[in-house]
Specification:
single chain; 372 residues; alpha/beta; Four Helix Bundle (Hemerythrin (Met), subunit A); Rossmann fold; 2 domains; seven-stranded mixed beta sheet; four-stranded mixed beta sheet; binds 5-S-methyl-1-O-phosphono-5-thio-D-ribulose
Length: 372
Amino acid sequence: MRIGETWYRTIWLADDGRSVDVIDQRALPFSFEIMRLATVEQAVHAISEMVVRGAPLIGATAAYGVCLALQKNPMHGSLDRALEVLAATRPTAVNLRWALEIMDEAVRFLPQDERVAAAYRRAARICDEDVEISKRIGEHGLAVLRGLAAAKGSGPLNILTHCNAGWLATVDWGTALAPIYMAHDEGLDVHVWVDETRPRNQGASLTAYELGAHGVPHSVVVDNAGGHLMQHGMVDVCIVGTDRTTAAGDVANKIGTYLKALAARDNGVPFYVALPQTTIDWHARDGVAEIPIEQRDAREVRFIRGLGPDGRVIEVELTPPSSPAANYAFDVTPARLVTGFITDRGVCDASLEGLLGLFPEWESDVREEEAE
Ligand code: MRU
């Protein structure tokens, strides 16, 4: 993605050939800052504190976290510890577990002196593949948007999205936003309703920033506006991302996604989920029962960050200091509310049959688990 005159990914190998540079997403949209990660502890901090966030980028950062640990000490104890501390950072995004399993497989049985180079090669491949996957999601989603625009006939295609599933959430392109970028680039008249996405405001700060940088028309709305907009025919389609999708098609995404899906169903608005194959948890079926939902510090609910009058980012308190708060970070949208999945292999129904139609290589694993 181009910022000013420079093309960026969200994560890249630093010029020392060992450390990793990431965009500090906590500073956006007010300043563009790069943070260097030189140790596995710093990678853990970057994921937990949401310097980086978004399921695919969390996976990519964890992969480089393994590299940083092995760089310091390539022995098995160091690998095991890195896998453990990285896995504990954020529980909902399945990409984290996926990336750590891949890294473990890539290095565990190698001689010690080959592990570091192999780890860096594998982490780089995870990043490159993520870019390709996101691009393909964009192409398949573009076909969906073209169809909806043609059916609408005139006026902009109004798309509602929640949280940030753009290039900042992946290595490049994004998932839910990739089709929107492609549609805009080919001249389709699109307008995006951006949910602010309390409590951390990934929509208001990150999605709005991305869309603005790309020149895509958009309006930020409060999280509760979606139902009203849909009742008045002002939303043609919803597209969101996901942190974990069960084999049966249930979807965990940023808190509030479920309410949008309910409003979409009530108003006959198509509700699509854009997902890379890396967010499918083939071992899970019932999302509500089986997907671990991250609970974060109540401070994120009780305080809000923004630009102060002197141009510095400040935090202000919203709630009575004595009021406890709860901070559930994700919710689960049942498959029955999802119109379709836009994946890197094409568009399918939000169901086991739909997913297996696109990913038949999982059929035997899934049937084996069913038989157990
Ligand atoms: O808490 P976050 O900001 O990591 O949550 C991100 C989301 O909910 C995204 O929609 C999801 O990770 C999909 S990203 C392509």
